[in-house]
Design a protein that fits this description.
heterodimer, A: 416 residues, alpha/beta, Rossmann fold, 2 domains, six-stranded mixed sheet, three-stranded antiparallel sheet, 9 helices, 10 strands, 52% helix, 15% strand, elongated, B: 296 residues, globular, G_SEPTIN_dom (chain A), GTP-binding (chain A), Septin (chain A)
Chain lengths: 416, 296
């Protein structure tokens, strides 16, 4: 087979310039997935910003501040704009920053991100798989909400971002930016960026290799982290209604680039780089996870003799591991079952003993009652006897008295 | 959820287009048929360039190989900013022997080898960003214009190959059939395919939605396309057209009244190219993978 790569010139219109359209049409009929993770303290404005970004109202109630730990809440929505169907999933970090001890705050977030990679990996490793209509839940963008202190990053922020930067595309933003004055904002931004650099935190780089987007991405990157303000309420500005926040001292317009960087965030996140975010997640972060996971499981591309592992061995090993796990689980379940049976048996024995006791007790009580009744009966009989005796005696007396009386009257009569 | 105003989500379509134009496309096509049926000419006509070298050049001895050989040639072609890496695999020697038993084996082996190559790349721990795709996306099978029925060789080949690759049968050198003969031949071929349960591209099972089905039904009515290939231009009615000049007239290759070449070109390139690749990747490659993994 010859495989020389030569450039050929076409002598007429062939028609494969329609290929990008063919490809895009396929995707539009299937729909797109986009998953955003919002990391930030409770009350920092995550939900409001999402509503503002996507020009809609996602249902959610404000979270409380007394969560015992950080948990992730994911909600999926279907949005449609012209002929594009978007399956948007927004993942919220509930309770982030509320605990007194925040040592483990980053853990649930990392676990969630890994779990999505794991789910995809499992599907990819299946024998019978359906990747082309798999609902992708991997996080494509992580919006990290920085509190508008005006000073620097909190250590929680640094630690969390450091743990996430190799797993997800991080876009840092300054939330509630209307609390910072313009000159402070500039200093704040520089401080944040230099802290990120000095701590080696890798945030998402807007791509500059493609000429159509290089320029806009380069100009926008300068403004990182974006200082945003979110609002779904509209205020009349001039003769138009615009999204804004109204204060006694003025109106902060969300879509006014002089007031905040919301428009820049929307441009970067949605209108320019959405596809790149998805691609980076798949080709960089996911591949890294996959490589680490497979190496962890003991797979190698070449064994020490530099002979490539055969496909069979790879899958055999995995299958054995899987079977081993199954066996372990089965044993565990069996043990638990045996334990439960024992427990139940003991319970039942106890219950039996109880019942016996109760029965004995009842029997005794019954006997006592019976005796009491008998005694009373005897008493009653005695009383009855006495009564009868008394009655008999009384009758006797009465008849005697009558006899005596009649004798008396007889005597009286005789006397007369 | 209802959007209350413009968000800009639809910009993702343009983003995708730009990205794909940057990475370029790969397309691998195989042509199968006895020698002399016009395979190389057809490929050159399809891609409007000298992609394949014709086996019978003046001054060259034509040699029919003793066994089926597979020859792949790769070119890079560009149109309106879209780059395509086109690989054409030819199969000289197919059906040319006296005893053609198992002449499809080298072809099946080649197709499976490409799947195997892709699979090995896919299961590496450290994978390439873009796995090179050498899998055959479409196999154009040239049926000689006998006008009767499909021959046992045709049936055997298509039956076996349609299970592992997209097979597009065409009636070659269709300028030897009149329109009525052509219609009857097609009818008989369609019946033959149905009787032997051979599902050629576009396969009914993979229609995605009613629109897809309607579009593909119209194509299925006309399969196999009766094609004529030509790489020379002639003057007709003041225009330069690609055609074959004969004593009785000029057969215009791109004239739908003369032959169905435009339909083949539209199917393979203008409308279903991505679909051919998708079916190869999502269906044929996956079944190869399942078979392979179950083997161990």
């Amino acid at each position: 087979q010859s495989d020389d790569l030569r450039n050929l010139s076409l002598s007429g219109h062939v028609g494969f310039d329609s290929l990008p359209d063919q490809l895009v049409n396929k995707s539009t009929s299937q729909g797109f997935c986009f998953n955003i993770l919002c990391v930030g303290e409770t009350g920092i404005g995550k939900s409001t910003l999402m509503d503002t970004l996507f020009n809609t109202k996602f249902e959610s109630e404000p979270a409380t501040h007394n969560e015992p730990g950080v948990r992730l809440k994911a909600r999926s929505y279907e949005l449609q704009e012209s002929n594009v169907r978007l399956k948007l999933t927004i993942v919220d970090t509930v309770g982030f920053g509320d605990q007194i001890n925040k040592d483990d705050s980053y853990k649930p977030i990392v676990e969630y991100i890994d779990a999505q990679f794991e789910a995809y990996l499992q599907e990819e490793l299946k024998i019978k798989r359906s990747l082309f209509n798999y609902h992708d839940t991997r996080i494509h963008a992580c919006l990290y909400f920085i509190a508008p202190t005006g000073h620097s990053l909190k250590s929680l922020d640094l630690v969390t971002m450091k743990k996430l930067d190799s797993k997800v595309n991080i876009i840092p933003i300054i939330a509630k930016a209307d609390t910072i004055a313009k000159n402070e904002l500039h200093k704040f931004k520089s401080k944040i960026m230099s802290e990120l650099v000095s701590n080696g935190v890798q945030i998402y780089q807007f791509p500059t290799d493609e000429e159509t987007v290089a320029e806009i991405n380069a100009t926008m990157s300068v403004h990182l982290p974006f200082a945003v303000v979110g609002s779904t309420e509209e205020v009349k500005i001039g003769n138009k209604m615009a999204k804004a926040r109204q204060y006694p001292w003025g109106v902060v317009q969300v879509e006014n680039e002089n007031h905040c960087d919301f428009v820049k965030l929307r441009e970067m996140l949605i209108r320019v780089n959405m596809e790149d975010l998805r691609e980076q997640t798949h080709t960089r972060h996911y591949e890294l996870y996959r490589r680490c996971k497979l190496e962890e499981m003991g797979f190698k591309d070449t064994d020490p003799d530099s002979k490539p592992f055969s496909l069979q061995e790879t899958y055999e090993a995995k299958r054995n591991e899987f079977l081993g796990e199954l066996q372990k689980k089965e044993d565990e379940m069996r043990q638990m079952f045996v334990m439960r049976v024992k427990e139940k048996e003991a319970e039942l024995k106890e219950a039996e003993k109880d019942l016996h006791e109760k029965f004995d007790h009842l029997k005794r009580t019954h006997q006592e009652e019976k005796k009491k009744v008998e005694d009373k009966k005897k008493e009653l009989e005695e009383e009855l006897n006495n009564f009868q005796k008394k009655k008999a005696a009384a009758q006797l007396l009465q008849s005697q008295a009558q006899q005596a009386g009649s004798q008396q009257t007889k005597k009286d009569k005789d006397k007369k | 959820c209802q959007l209350f105003g413009y968000v800009g989500i639809e910009a993702v379509l343009d983003q995708m287009k730009i990205k794909t134009m940057k990475t370029g496309f790969e397309f691998n096509i195989m042509v199968v048929g006895q020698s002399g049926l016009g395979k190389s000419t057809m490929v050159n006509t399809l891609f409007k360039s000298k992609v394949s070298r014709k086996a019978s050049q003046p001054g060259q001895e034509e040699r029919i190989p003793k066994t089926v050989q597979l020859q792949s040639v790769t070119h890079v072609i560009e149109e309106k900013g879209v780059k395509m890496k086109l690989t054409v695999t030819d199969t000289p020697g197919f059906g040319d022997q006296i005893n053609n038993e198992n002449c499809w084996d080298p072809i099946i082996k080649y197709i499976n080898e490409q799947y195997e190559r892709y699979l090995r790349e896919e299961i590496l721990i450290t994978r390439k960003r873009k796995i090179p795709d050498t899998r055959v996306h479409g196999c154009v099978y040239f049926v000689p214009p006998t006008g009767h029925w499909l021959r046992p060789l045709d049936l055997e080949f298509m039956r076996r190959l349609s299970k592992i690759v997209n097979v597009v049968p065409v009636i070659a050198k269709a300028d030897t059939l009149t329109l009525e003969e052509r219609a009857e031949f097609k009818q008989r071929i369609q019946e033959d395919l149905k009787t032997h349960a051979i599902s050629v591209y576009p396969q009914e099972d993979f229609d995605q939605d009613p629109d897809d089905r309607a579009l593909n039904d119209r194509i299925r009515e006309k399969i196999p396309f009766a094609v004529v290939g030509a790489d020379q231009e002639h003057q007709v009615n003041g225009k330069r057209v690609l055609g074959r000049k004969t004593k009785w007239g000029i057969i215009e290759v791109e004239n739908p009244a003369h032959c169905e070449f435009p339909l083949l070109r539209d199917l393979l390139i203008r409308s279903h190219l991505q679909d051919l690749k998708d079916i190869t990747h999502n269906v044929h490659y996956e079944s190869y993978r399942v078979r392979r993994l179950n083997e161990s």
